[in-house]
Design a protein that fits this description.
It is a single chain. A six-stranded mixed beta sheet has the order 6-7-8-3-9-10, sandwiched between helices. α7 runs parallel beside α8. β12 and β13 form a beta hairpin. The chain is an alpha/beta fold and 316 residues long. It is globular and about 60 Å long.
Length: 316
């Protein structure tokens, strides 16, 4: 879908990124993560030609990026940023409709799309479509920003530190919302973040950058368990190595089937890291587990999480 081949960009003779190569698969969520000033945002902005590269080549949909009209790209690639950038004197509905209006969509189609996106992001259209940005919480504004980026049904959604200014609870909720939408719509999504846990939680493909170069890329599991250098190991693991490994394991794989117990059930697709928090909050040694339809899968025991599951994570 998007391919970088030995791409470099220079500012005042100094490399912002140098000789980077990676691919963003169609329908996958690619996360660019790294140190401050590593070139993540510069790389993202080259995809929709907000920044032009100096050397190498970028392909979008199999065609050279430079042969594609920059204005067309920006209207057909969704772009969501941390500062949101909603127009303060426009309603929520009009903010979301920005690009469809530029593309001359019929009014009825725009209205339908606005309502569809608000519902998809958990905002009741009857309540929120006529509100103004100052009448929304930070999390609600961020949802509207994501809705605006998705409004014209783009092939690709670019997100640059989209949740950085949010509180942890709202941030986590929006991360899961974006992941749900990405899986549901099969959109190709490219995200920049400095948050290691966010990167590990969301990414299908991780690209770790430092000082304008790609240090290592692969799945979250590969970068955690097969680090190419001490820098990679220290960046992703640090003192939380075991806990982050457990974030890659799903509860459903460690239930004892045929058992049941009292307590608020865990979802089978929850990570073991999240399950540990649930055990502590419930002050329980075992908890019931259900599938996505609410059907019983069995019981997860705390001792299985810290022994069998922990050993599996460390040996993977």
């Amino acid at each position: 879908m998007i391919e970088f081949n030995q791409v470099s960009k220079y500012f005042h003779g100094q490399p912002a990124v140098e000789n980077i190569s990676f691919c963003c698969r169609e329908g996958a969520l690619t996360v660019l993560v790294g140190t401050s000033g590593s070139g993540k945002s510069t790389t993202l902005k080259m995809i929709n030609r907000l920044i032009e590269y100096d050397r190498g080549s970028i392909y979008f949909g199999g065609e050279p990026l430079r042969q594609q009209d920059a204005l067309y790209l920006r209207r057909h690639i969704g772009y969501a940023i941390q500062s949101i950038g909603l127009f303060p004197h426009w309603t929520v509905a009009r903010n979301i409709a920005t690009v469809p209006r530029l593309l001359n969509w019929p009014g009825a189609k725009i209205d339908q799309r606005v309502d569809e996106l608000l519902a998809l992001l958990g905002l009741n259209p009857a309540v929120y479509r006529q509100r103004y940005p100052h009448q929304l919480s930070g999390g609600q504004q961020q949802r509207v920003g994501v809705a605006r980026a998705l409004a014209a049904d783009p092939q690709v959604l670019l997100m640059d530190e989209p949740f950085g200014a949010l509180d942890p609870v709202t941030r986590s909720a929006l991360q899961q919302e974006v992941r749900r939408i990405q899986r549901q719509t099969r959109r190709t999504l490219v995200m920049v973040t400095h948050d290691i846990d966010e990167a590990l939680t969301l990414a299908d493909h991780l690209v770790l950058m430092d000082n304008g170069a790609i240090i290592q890329q692969g799945s979250a599991g590969q970068l955690l368990t097969q680090p190419a250098s001490d820098f990679v190991r220290d960046f992703f693991a640090g003192s939380d190595y075991g806990i982050r490994l457990m974030g890659l394991c799903q509860v459903a794989h460690y239930v004892r089937p045929g058992e049941w117990c009292a307590g608020d059930p865990l979802a089978g697709d929850l990570s073991l890291r999240q399950a540990l928090s649930c055990f502590v909050a419930a002050r329980a040694l075992k908890l019931p587990v259900v599938d996505s339809d609410g059907q019983p899968l069995g019981v997860l025991w705390f001792e299985d999480v810290v022994t069998k599951a922990g050993a599996d994570a460390l040996s993977s």
